[in-house]
Amino acid sequence: MAGTDEDTVAAADDALYVLTALLLTPAKFPSVLGDDYPEACSALGLAPLVDGYGLVLGQDGSGARWTVAIDDVSLVAVAIATWDCGMEYDLSPEERTVVAALPGWPLEVAVAAPGVPAPHDPAPEDGDGPPLSPPDTSAWGPAQRRLGADEIAMHWARWREQLDDDAFSPSPKDPEAAAGPDGASAAEGAGDAPGAPAGTGEGTGAPEADDKAAKPGRTATKEPSHRGVRRVLAEAWAYIDSPPPLGRVRSSFGSGEARTLRADGPGWSLVARTDDIAFVLLDDEPGEVLPVGRGPELPGLLAALDKMAVRPN
Q: Where on the tree of life does the source sit, at the highest rank (predicted)?
């Protein structure tokens, strides 16, 4: 939620009318900007501080867009929590906390400050790079894939209730269940990818996507790619022995004692509950959401990922 009309912060020798704010920390960052925290920081030209940043988005008196990065993360966290409760909060960071005033906005902002010109990028100054702009999400790719994973994590129950246990193929670790009448594997001949754990239990069905899902207006696949999912699980297992960049594996509150896990990697995103199944999205499977049954391997993988994951303070 945006701040009040009176919210201001000093930036670029002018008053900034605060429209909204967000966190850029290892445990919580706009995933549309990158697969991990350092990549998201790089998109803004910021060094990946251990404690992260608070980002304040607004307009100056001329209507120009500005993003102000501050190192007082707790101040921004309190403001966001207060706005989420429907209350006003005067977000006015002290000048000493300002790390950078960056032209432009890294994300879309649907509101504008009253009484000033329409939002526009400020005029470039000598030495300035291009102004920040939101990633292109008009076509399927990493940004859209990560947004789709965000949607599933936010609305887990809605996605999960569209699947039952019958939607998943038998685990290849169960020879009697996995073999067909001619002894062929139920894994459709995909076989084990090098280093991939057996028994992924990928589903043959997937929930229908709503208009905010992986790709707006698209439906999730009913025939997931075994090989693609198994590659993702193999790479996720590799994270246990070789930790990835900070923020590629995150753990947040789920329901009950469960945790919601989010893991990302080159060309893929995984969303899971520690007591349930997982969903996989791939750059090379446009608009598709691939369910992964628990089987004998997934619980151990999720427990190991949760143990190493970054968690909100």
A: Bacteria
Tokens of residue 121, six digits: 């990028």
Every domain of the chain and the residues it spans: 8-103, 142-308
Tokens of 96: 């000493």
- Chain centroid offset of residue 96 CA: 30
- The string of pLDDT tens digits covering residues 104-118 is 999 999 999 999 999
Handedness of CA 154, 158, 160, 163 (dihedral sign): negative
- Length of the chain as a residue count: 313
Of residues 231, 225, 12, the one with CA closest to residue 102: 12
Q: Specify the DSSP class assigned to residue 26.
A: S
77 vs 199: CA distance, rounded Å: 41
Q: Which residues pair with 242 in a beta bridge?
A: none
Residue 224 phi/psi, 5-degree rounding, is -65, 155
Query: Kind and range of the H or E element at 152?
Result: helix 142-154
Cα Rg of the chain, angstroms: 22
- Report residue 101 as tokens: 């005033």
Q: How many whole angstroms separate alpha carbon 92 and alpha carbon 217?
A: 40
DSSP state of 240: H
Is residue 159 within 8 Å of 220, Cβ to Cβ? no
Q: Which residues neighbour 123 within 8 Å (Cβ) at sequence distance 6 or greater? A: 64
